[in-house]
Amino acid sequence: MTSTPIPVAVLGPNGRMGSEACRAVDAAEDLELVARIGRGDDLDAAAQAGAEVVVDLTVPSAAKANVLWALDHGMHAVVGTTGWDEDALAEVREALDRNPRLGVLIAPNFAIGAVLAMRFAEIAARYYESAEIIELHHPAKVDAPSGTARHTAAAIARGRAAGGLGAVPDATETDPLRARGAVVDGVHVHAVRLRGLVAHEEVLFGGVGEQLTLRHDSFDRVSFMPGVLLGIREVASHPGLTLGLDGYLELG
């Protein structure tokens, strides 16, 4: 006897990621796409359709309100929209405190390879004096640095702290044009926006006489769909707020 498919609503179904997510959910036998909510559509359509999981693939300015709405209506949320700050995350946590059985996954990247690269970066960070990140995306991306780069920088910072390392060495005294990029958790991050790219990241580690480079490339947004589907299937089993798909994987 087969189980009842999980009813899913996709917010942002007309975007690049949203359209792929709709196709992936449609093709999955254990999931059912019950609502597609585009810009200007009434969110209540998701509730009326009986959605249990809302997938938010919209824009940073809308994502927080969408997640809070989903929680207030008893729905889990899987979020690929980046641009979250601590204040917004605090509001989500407060809403989850009122709805302790619900789960929210906010993932900066749903590609399994990208998640593994972030974990590998944390492991490697303790062994190298220097670390920098180059993230490369299409020019329509609205935020920089990317959520993936921020998540990776945080992982590197954890690894360096665990290894007892101090600040990354950098003798730069003046940088009026910000050539050294942004500094996220003590790690320099350089953002490239170039036509023809999708989502790519290089993590560079340097030690005496050697360099280690970790690189992940998503050439097509279909690469994100296994992670999106994993999030939909697992979110109900992980109440509370989870930041990063690695929270659903057994990566140690």
Automatic annotation (TrEMBL):
Pathway of action: Amino-acid biosynthesis; L-lysine biosynthesis via DAP pathway; (S)-tetrahydrodipicolinate from L-aspartate: step 4/4
Keyword Methyltransferase assigned: no
Molecular function in Gene Ontology: 4-hydroxy-tetrahydrodipicolinate reductase
Catalysed conversion reaction: (S)-2,3,4,5-tetrahydrodipicolinate + NADP(+) + H2O = (2S,4S)-4-hydroxy-2,3,4,5-tetrahydrodipicolinate + NADPH + H(+); (S)-2,3,4,5-tetrahydrodipicolinate + NAD(+) + H2O = (2S,4S)-4-hydroxy-2,3,4,5-tetrahydrodipicolinate + NADH + H(+)
This enzyme's EC code(s): 1.17.1.8
Top-level taxon in the UniProt lineage: Bacteria
Binding site for (S)-2,3,4,5-tetrahydrodipicolinate: 138, 147-148
Pfam family, one: DapB_C
Domain Dihydrodipicolinate reductase C-terminal residue range list: 113-242
Residue ranges occupied by any Dihydrodipicolinate reductase N-terminal domain in the UniProt entry: 6-110
Keywords tagged on the record: Amino-acid biosynthesis, Cytoplasm, Diaminopimelate biosynthesis, Lysine biosynthesis, NAD, NADP, Oxidoreductase
CDD domains, per the entry: DHDPR_N
Binding site for NADP(+): 39
Physiological role: Catalyzes the conversion of 4-hydroxy-tetrahydrodipicolinate (HTPA) to tetrahydrodipicolinate.
UniProt xrefs under HAMAP family: DapB
Protein's name according to its UniProt entry: 4-hydroxy-tetrahydrodipicolinate reductase
Source organism per UniProt: Brachybacterium hainanense
